[in-house]
Structures are given as structure tokens and as C-alpha cells.
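Hey Z.,

So I finally got round to the shikimate-3-phosphate thing we talked about over coffee. Here's the setup:
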Amino acid sequence: MSVSATPPTDRTIVLVGLMGAGKSCIGRRLAARLDLPFVDADREIEEAAGCSIPEIFERHGEQAFRDGERRVIRRLLDGPVRVLAAGGGAFMDPQTRAAIRARAVSVWLRADLELLLRRVLRRSDRPLLQVDDPRGRLAELMAERHPIYAEADIAVDSADGPPEATLERVLAALREHAAAAPVGRDDDGAHVARS
Ligand code: S3P
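And the result:
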């Protein structure tokens, strides 16, 4: 690992935020820059279930998906340090949020409605947005979720344009966070000074 690639944290970095915020795109690039493995929680859930997310929703319902998501993220947080892109709803689950808070550093990729909408309309594999009014649905999710995403350790604006610009902002924010809080947290999420 080169000196410049030294991760600004010794914890798994979890990217949270709404669908279309760029969690996978930025996560993959962040992992490459930091020389860490990258994992996408949605892909892991699909692998564990042996079918796609739309199929999980259709066959078993959203609650079964959320239960699987909670289990998968917990398992991933127990593993080696890496960059983890969480599905948009993962951080809304109180248990998952507590586990992320205790074991990882969380980064909220924040984007405005127009940008999210432009990005999500390119794909049709998000069951929550298979509705007549995806804009209205996204706006509702924004209102509901933004106050919770705001509990993440770091918030970074995910702008349109080259992902490298957002990536640089994430790296700078991680360094700033590490410099401002050179502490660890115990399993309850309480801050503890590292000796
Ligand atoms: C969801 C987001 C999706 C996926 C599922 C539910 C959500 O992940 O987990 O469709 O509740 O916001 P992305 O945010 O990666 O699209």
C-alpha cells in the first residue's frame, strides 16, 4: 500500500444515502484509492438469497428483504475492514444503524431530488420506485430519510459530473473526521479515547 493510500480510518467505511446517490460508484472508487476491498450489500443479499432484489420483494415482501439486509450487513461489519455500499434503506433500520455506528465510519452521500431522479430513471430494478410517480416517491423518501441519514458520521454532497470530484470530497471529509475525532467507540457506540 502506498503512503497516499493509507486509509484515513481503521474501520470499515459504510456509504449511506438514497437510491441514485452514487454509493456503489463512489464506493468502488474509494476502495480502489484506499487499497481496500469493496462490497455492495445489495449484491451480497442477492447472492445469499439466490435471486434478484425485485424477485425477493415480489416473492417474499419488503420485510423479508429488510431482515436479510440486516443479517448481511451485520456479517459484513464483522469481517475485515473494507468499503461497504449499503442499500438506501439499510441505515433506516435502528439495529443496522447501531451496528454501523459501533463498528464503522458512515458517510452520507447527499444529493438533490433532480439528480437522484435522473439517475434512478436509468434503471428499473428498484422495487420501491416502480410506481406511477417516482419523483413523488423519492421526495417522500427524502423527507422521511434525510433526518436519519444526517446521523451519519460524515455528510458529503454527491454532485453531478465526474465521480472523481465527489470521491475527493469524501476522502477530504474522512481525513478531516479522523483528525477531529482521533478516538474509537466501544460496542455501544460511545466515544472512547484510543490509547
Ligand atoms: C432500497 C435501495 C436499494 C435496494 C432496495 C431498497 C431502499 O439499494 O437496497 O431496492 O430502500 O432505498 P440502492 O440504494 O443501492 O439502490
